[in-house]
């Protein structure tokens, strides 16, 4: 892991700010694989604000360094590619203990069975399903006895938004993986967050006409008539980190998308 993102501020005895009130995350060690942008970075922000130390991982060192700098001195970072087991091993070798693990890292293609190549169709399972499986496997020896893990899914698992069968199946499989890991790893808690469409970094990378059409469709499909925000999804993840009776569950912060 790198050193903290920025040096400690010089001490000032006379004007020292009052210490922040303790929260369930104060002094806890949080690791976010896929924490350099989007929902993962938003979870990192909230965890740091709540007093945790955070390690963020991703494939791009420059992006990680800049994200960690924005998080402040309780954040550090390491390069990791979840599709590469040697990279996962090296990343987790550099980490001593994990109280909370979140694994939103993934990149994949989505589309109809009749249009995608085999490798495009397999990409959600390769990156999002097996990426998270192997991330948890490499993290497992470092999880503390009262640790929690949150996997990333997507509400397409329960309501396919368009022809994208492998992506739909991948998310459903991740929700099954969460239940299976909750049984195997107990008393470590394992839960899954399964958001609807989020107006954030991932969609900002896509062409404007595709994004606007998708958001408009989501507005028609969801009870709350709009996409979610990264902050709304991050709040759900922090709830799963800290509620000590939640395990084996999937939460759907989706504005009621699955119901219509
Ligand atoms: N945004 C939505 O509407 C939405 C809805 C439902 C579910 N989700 C799920 O949320 C997850 C993250 O989405 P997001 O909106 O937060 O997007 P994002 O901003 O693209 O975040 C993805 C993060 O994962 C990292 N990453 C990607 N592939 C990786 C790999 N193979 N190994 C390690 N790190 C990797 C990225 O950094 P690098 O690229 O530098 O590695 C980045 O830090 C995805 O699994 C997505 O399916 C998103």
TrEMBL record:
Name the UniProt record assigns to this protein = SDR family oxidoreductase
Q: InterPro entries from the xrefs?
A: NAD(P)-bd_dom_sf, SDR_DHRS6-like, SDR_fam
Please give the organism. Streptomyces roseoverticillatus
Biased composition annotated in UniProt, kind: Low complexity: 1-17
Q: Write down the SUPFAM superfamilies for this protein, in alphabetical order.
A: NAD(P)-binding Rossmann-fold domains
In the record, the note on similarity to other proteins reads: Belongs to the short-chain dehydrogenases/reductases (SDR) family.
- Top-rank lineage group of the source organism: Bacteria
Query: Where do the segments described as Disordered lie?
Result: 1-25
Per UniProt, the keywords (alphabetical) are:
Oxidoreductase
Looking up Pfam families in the UniProt record yields: adh_short_C2
Does the record bear Cell cycle in its keywords?
Answer: no
């Amino acid at each position: 892991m790198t050193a903290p993102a920025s040096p400690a501020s010089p001490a000032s005895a006379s004007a020292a700010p009052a210490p922040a009130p303790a929260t369930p995350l104060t002094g806890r060690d949080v690791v976010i694989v896929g924490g350099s942008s989007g929902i993962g970075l938003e979870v990192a922000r909230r965890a740091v604000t709540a007093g945790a130390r955070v390690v963020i991982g991703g494939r791009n060192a420059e992006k990680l360094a800049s994200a960690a700098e924005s998080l402040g001195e309780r954040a550090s970072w390491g390069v990791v590619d979840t599709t590469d087991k040697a990279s996962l091993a090296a990343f987790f070798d550099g980490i001593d203990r994990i109280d909370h693990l979140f694994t939103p890292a993934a990149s994949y293609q989505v589309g109809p069975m009749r249009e995608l190549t085999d490798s495009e169709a397999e990409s959600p399972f390769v990156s999002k399903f097996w990426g998270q499986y192997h991330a948890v496997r490499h993290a497992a020896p470092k999880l503390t006895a009262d640790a929690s893990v949150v996997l990333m899914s997507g509400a397409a698992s329960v309501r396919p938004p368009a022809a994208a069968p492998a992506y739909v199946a991948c998310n459903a499989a991740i929700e099954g993986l969460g239940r299976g890991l909750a049984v195997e790893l107990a008393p470590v808690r394992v839960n899954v967050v399964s958001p609807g469409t989020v107006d954030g970094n991932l969609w900002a990378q896509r062409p404007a006409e595709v994004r606007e059409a998708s958001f408009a469709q989501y507005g028609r499909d969801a009870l709350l008539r709009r996409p979610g925000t990264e902050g709304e999804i991050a709040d759900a993840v922090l709830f799963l980190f800290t509620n000590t009776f939640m395990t084996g569950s999937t939460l759907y912060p989706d504005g009621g998308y699955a119901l219509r």
